Amino acid sequence: MSTAQGANSDGAQYFAQGIGLLAKNLADDVMHCLECGFDSTTERFYVYDDGVWRLNGGRIEQEISRLLGNRYRTTHTKHVLDLIRYSDNAARITCKPLPQFINVPNGMVDWETGELLAHASQYLSTVQLPVEYDPDATCPKVERFLEEVLPPDCIEFIWEVIGYTMFSGNPLHAAVLLYGKGRNGKGTLIRLLKALVGERNCSAVGLHELTENRFRTATLYGRLANLAGDLDSRWVANTAAFKAITGGDLIQAEFKFGAAFDFTPWALPVYSANKAFGSADSSEGWVSRWTVVPFPNTFGGNEDRNLDSELHSAAELRGVMARGIRALPMLLKRGQFQEPESVKEAKEAFVAASDTVRGWISEQCTLDPKSWQSRTELYSAYQLHPLTQGSKLLSGREFYNRLEQVSGIVAAKRQGTRGFKGIKLGRPAPVAQDGTAPTAAPGTLARIHRSRW
């Protein structure tokens, strides 16, 4: 029997004359009453409760106070916590993903088989969704909502996204952008995902905050999803942090009043935006990570104010979980989202709107391996194009570096003049159905040229 079970209310058994506090005895009894763990990365304590390891939140300190009774002093706490920190009986918490299972209140779901297993502290799971698993549950209201706000070819695809949001880890190196103007269901879907995953398992770090606020970045630690709505259209000057959190790389963060620490984020970023946000980075590492979900319909003035409460009912959420989990095995076996045509088109539109150089090339240039154009001519044309008006104009050096990132375009000199091979100004003339080039009224081409450049 532990001394805790026969403890006196004054805690006398934890003190010895001439020695003082018997800290080891007290620590052992605390760990008998609570299953304790310690995370050496963030120097934080955890307690196992109802199938999941949760941040201590003062529970260990409360247990120390309860056992010591009137003899409790705040100085005692540090001695006991130090012993728990190094005890072999304390679990070593890492806050790493647990990709085999989805932790829910009624057990551990093996998403590959649909089997529900019993909880166990040995899983070291620090994330538990707030929704009970019922493989037979349905969600007719959520299904109707998705059909109203998404293109028809997006329905099966969005269930892969929902399922992946519950998955522990981001092996696809993906980021999801809900994209479309106005009030069209993006925020409703973000809130639905938050209700499904659980607020304590989510962060909400905006794209710009990743590089501007080291404290906000720390909230990604151990989180399942990063759900941030209504991104602004400010220029994204630095994409390194975004590529790190989606690429499985180490980043450095810091909790307020704590030491800096390094960790590998695995939260799935899900953002929403009304407008595209420009970036000087148009590399494959930036563009390829985005999965863009189109929201083409607007419902201004017709919002159902009770919609969230209806979609977030326990019955609907159980159905959302069941449907999302069923989509996971095929997705992870395939290793990528199976994007329908509407998603591909939405990404093309987003990239063109956010990358002025790419949009300018598609509208005003021809990619031809035999062609060559001087770089000053190209930059002058870029500066005058309507796409660059009202957005951040790249400097000459940025523009030239960006051109070299485009497949097929290489820097090359001709007769001492610096330029680029593989590109030329002007689009090919359209061809009529009879195979001939359509004629234009005198002066038309000149007017078009002036208006475009």
UniProtKB/TrEMBL annotation:
Keywords: ATP-binding, Hydrolase, Nucleotide-binding
Keyword Nucleotide-binding included in the entry's annotation: yes
Source organism per UniProt: Mycobacterium gordonae
GO MF: ATP binding; hydrolase activity
UniProt-recorded name of the protein: SF3 helicase domain-containing protein
Superkingdom per UniProt: Bacteria
Keyword DNA-binding: no
Location of the SF3 helicase domain: 153-308
Pfam families the record matches: D5_N, DUF5906
Entries under SUPFAM superfamilies matching the protein: P-loop containing nucleoside triphosphate hydrolases
InterPro entries per UniProt: Helicase_put_C_phage/plasmid, Helicase_SF3_DNA-vir, NrS-1_pol-like_helicase, ORF904-like_C, P-loop_NTPase, Phage/plasmid_primase_P4_C
